[in-house]
Write a structure and sequence with these properties.
Length: 451
Amino acid sequence: MSLQSDARGASKSDALLNAPILPTMLRFAVPIILGNIFQQLYNIVDAMVVGKYLGDLPLSGISIASPVMDILYALLLGASIGIGVLIGTLCGAQDWEKLKRVHATALTGGVCLAIGISILSLLFTRRILTAQGSEKAVIDQAMLYLTIILAGLVFCYLYNYFAAALRSIGNSRTPFVVLLVSSTLHALIDVLLCGVLHMGIYGVACSTVSCQIFSTVWLAVYTQRNCPRIRLTVKELRFDPKLASLILSFAWAAALQQAVVMIGRFLVQGMLTPLGHLSVTGYNMGVRSEQFLFCFSQGISASMVVGISQNRGHGNRDRVRKFYSSGIRSEAVFFLIVSVPFFIFAPQIISLFSGNNDVIRAGVTYLRTMSVFYLFAFLGEVIQGFFRGIGRLRVTMAASLCQIALRVILSWFLIPLKGIPGICLAIITGWVLLVLIEGSYSLHISSKGLF
């Protein structure tokens, strides 16, 4: 069984190193895309269940809680992405002994870090929400939700880490299957706890954490049973201080880059507060909706990252370039397919979350303005994916920091003048500049082979 599983994993990795690039990249991307969609369903189902069963106040509570949760999830997801790049590079180089030690150190160190983040967040989140200027009743609802979510934060890290590790060694299918089952279970538990047992916003949070635990256990058991190259004994499960600095060099920039994006969204949400909580809710429902589109662009980018990191580790620069160009073409085609339907059906999309006309109006304004410019967002994903794949994670961090700083500054000026359209203009400006500046640099790096 172990030899067969190892052979299957090796053949998937070999495809990334040897098979035709575009079909290989797209086949590898499909499970990631579907997994991303079901990941988004975690949050979407929460919002829909709360909106249908609990009303506008709890929905607003989850709305202001989401940026806090997203920032913390982004830190853990970003760390997993960064470590995944290192794992992919070692896999391409076929350095299996070092790969296993990296795996053990990332597990033990990551769990300790996630627990520390959870404790600090429980201590300071209410103060942050209060400083943001949200209404007390809304903050109370948000804290009911966040207390349980934060207590289970370690399972968020473990799920994302195991999923990233499996993808990096060539297995994108198993994380998708786990998410498919977990998301379905999540929806059923949500309805049971909120609609039948009337547990309120506690039920929504308990459903989310229980499904994260379920997903973590499944992936951990699968990895131990079916992936000999990263299977660990109790003796091997130890923290290696020497490797920790290497892992941190990959993890910290990716974690900060992911978190910076969410922090920017959180700061902007605070600027929207004077428009009223219904406008804030509509904006957040618009952001939630567009995340479905980003599932596709991020899936293509993630597939490209694995292909680039493995081929870079294998020393094949020409395939690195071809993975990048295939990613750009795929993102452009995707924009042409989705932009018009998303513009046309924006009212129907937002009405899935709320029947309140003010919420719908704010959400539709956001979606219809943004949909015209999603090409720049999609290209930005693939550009940043290129830099992640070649290990230039600090470039993506610096670019995101500059983009978000610009977004926050422009939002501060434009939201009081234009409301929701003002934040749209701020975001779009950041997307365009990232593509122009970072995209030009990536083409220079690629053409010169400086990776």
